[in-house]
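re: ur question from yesterday

yeah so i grabbed the chain u mentioned. its 387 aa long if i counted rite. heres the sequnce exactly as i have it in my notes:
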Amino acid sequence: MKLSPLENQVGGHHGVLSMGEENEIVVKPCLPQELRFYEEAVLHPDFQVWMPSYYGTLTLTRELPQQLQGSQVNGQPAGGSEMPVPTVKALNGFLLADLMAPEFAPTVTPEAAQSADINKDESDAECICLENISHGFQKACLLDLKLGTQLFDEDASEDKKSRLGVVAANTTSGTLGMRLTGFHVYDCEKGEFIKYSKDYGKGLTDDTVLDGFRAFFSAKLGPQRMRLVIERFINDLADFLEMIETQEVRMRSSSLLLMYEGDPDAFDEGYLTEQEKIAEVVTKAKIELEKGTASISIDKDGDRVMIGNNNNKIEDDDDDDDDDDDEDDDDEELRQKVTDMRLIDFGHSTWTPGKGPDEGVVLGVKSALKLLEKLLEDYPHEEEEEE
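ran it thru and got these structure tokens back, copy pasting raw so excuse formatting
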């Protein structure tokens, strides 16, 4: 297993790596504040469900560990240069232990060594290991939507407060509480991604930001697929807004990452799988309903059905233990996504009990929701088109 530079990154800091057979794990350098935020998120389950899964920590070091003396990194001696390339010093976290054999030592590709975010004056870099939320897409169209009217935390230097204050005042962050930080869109006709930089997002105004969203939702999927995508993000934003208005937290420069499948064939494959899974869980629910009075709740992707029966809730998350083949089939089904939305980047976020919600973030979510509702008007239902 190798550490490689993360593909599909559209925002945030450089130096983010990935590992796993399909790069399903993100290795992200972090400060103690972000690590603490992830570890304390377990106390806030309604919030945590919107975050990438947290697996543990990994320490990159320029000091060659004793057990790697004489070993090689991508065919070269691990400690043969004046400034050794980063190597893995420690793995912490029970989920990481499950993912890797105890004697396993991940290797670091030259590209990863070059991009790894380790200060030359320091020997170690603490990293968090997270779910790669773009895993499951063939051609992921990604948007980093920065939230909040305040982009700096309270203990930032005066210089940083002044600099980021100017950024907020001169962009939609200050007026709308959100900004399109960067995004890329897949062009299936050309077989390539069209990338939009941070500068593009900073140049958008209250009057033109809708055009920025139009650019993000410009993958050549056809109007009905795109309507489905936008409707899902509207529903996600509405659910997220309901949650964030109840959370006592301060997020500075955190983002919502919006993702949708940009390849039409992969999109249809993922959508068909979702519909088959929904039909399967509904069938199971009906069986339970026949046993007595019950209620059913199914999430938008059909991943979970909640059945209330005789005042008891039975949760069926499609994890049958019939045999390993069934589990493998479920894994295959879950790999192809259609859309996803997650909250990322918590390097300047803190839990603030007793202080109420972050009104700047709430404003940003409301603004994005209104803009997508406006954008949806560009994609009428088929029956409306016929009229």
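noticed a couple things. Residues 140-265+337-386 form a domain with the D-amino Acid Aminotransferase; Chain A, domain 1 fold (CATH 3.30.470.160). also The chain has two domains: 2-131, 140-265+337-386.
anyway ttyl
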